[in-house]
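debug: dumping io for the single-chain case to check the tokenizer round-trip. Nothing else runs in this session.
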Amino acid sequence: MYRMYRMYLIILFLLVFNFTFPASLYCLPQGGNVTHGEATISQPSAVDMHIQQTTDKTVINWKQFDIYKSETVSFIQPSKHAIALNRVMGVNSSFIDGLLSANGRVFLLNPHGVLIGKNGQVNVNGFLASTLNMKDSDFINDRFVFEIHENQSLASIINKGSIKTKDGGFVSLLGSSVKNEGAIIANMGTVQLGSGKKMELNFEGNNLINFIVDSNDHDEIISDSSAETEQTGIEHKGSIQANGGKVLISSTSARSLMKSVINIDGDITADTVDENTGQIDVQNHDGGVNISGKIQAVGNAFGNIGGQIKINGKNVKIENKSLINASGETGGGQILIGANFSEKELDNFSETVEIDQEVSIKANAVQSGSGGDIVIWSDVMTKFDGQISARGGAVNGDGGFVELSGKKGLAYNGRVNLSAPSGNRGLLLLDPKNIVVGTINTNDEQLDDQNILIDDSVDENFNISIAKLIEELNNADVTMQASASISIEEKVDASENINLGNLTLTAPIINLNEKIYLNGELKGGEGNNSVNVGAKGLIGNAIDLIAENKTINLVATTYDENIDIDKSINFYVESW
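debug: decoded output
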């Protein structure tokens, strides 16, 4: 009786153990079947598997693909460019918590998801994990198109471990949603995080991920925006490093009537290596981008310049002491937020951009050379409360260029430093719809000596205090460029400021209704239709006003120096 009872307990234990811990019995990839190319699968021990690939491309269909802790799967390939496409045909997600190694490239496709655990290590020349499918015919013909199956569940690619490639390699994590909490390293190479329903990869060109948008889905989203729901397309909380290379984080919706969101809370680094500047591109094609981490493409070594950082989405928000840095020892780089350069033109504008007070954005030249270019742009509303610097080098070089633009509204309560210890100061361009210097509208927020404010309504004026304008002129030349009008409503007196920058006003209509005293130059830029100088408009410095299409009107005004007028001039003397 005792023996039977003991046997019963043993059988029960084995059954429970089998169902509770199936991984301990069924580890390593299972059911491999080579369907294209040539490869031999062997298992020299219970915890080791070797895949010997003898052709440049091979396709292996697996029942399941798991690598548990203390297990190793090694791909031995004919060259670093060889690719092994591994497709999971079963119904379970893939779990990698051991070591996956290869001297070439490994693709892992599983529509039910891929999880790289905290103990997982991927050491390869190139690694791609995706929940999207790719046809064998496309793979064989170097057409790397990935798309979601009809009615497929929205499974995720999650990395909590370590993915590292040899120099010049790539890491691509693609799916309906992608989450990185671990470390990804691909120096001199490329890191790609992409979410969406269909995308095409180009491993050799500049557009590394090209999203293929179904026009019917796009029309449906536009026609019924009230029914949209949000999903997190990409979430990055770990670290990404691609020094001398590229990082591309790009998202679009995986389903109709759905908007994707990109959340970046971790670090992204693509520092310059020799002459190879780093590039970081964060693009959300139909949703928001939220950043509260560090994005860096700097040139730390002598002779290095800063790289390029682009952040674009329908709505961009940067907060929580975030650092966006493209500084370089011998020159600042380029930072574009809310806009993109295409063939030297700005396009792909965000609707709104909001940057909080503790955010720092830098494109400084540290030792020599000029500061970089920083553009913050939106089609509707830009709100900037942070710190910007694009300083010239300590030894030589000029300050850089900063543009703050909101097509309909701009609120600027931050700081800009474009100084140059051994060169000329840089240029700050403020580019809203209307600009009022001094007096504010009754509907606007309280304007103190440190602020440039705008009402929440995008149709109100952009207002700058006199003290704030002079503060900006101490660190930069300033161009105020309004699409409608500029009005000087309070006296601007900077006569005691010796090293003041130049002020340029550009708008279809400019109204100079108060006195302006500057040690720098006051210029009216190209594009002015009319310039109206009121009865109090005494200008105590050289002025160059241009009215391209119409007139310059001077009303009983006194001028201490020369006025150059490129169009007709009308004098009006009114009694007061």
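debug: round-trip ok. Residues 25-156 form a domain with the Pectate Lyase C-like fold (CATH 2.160.20.10).
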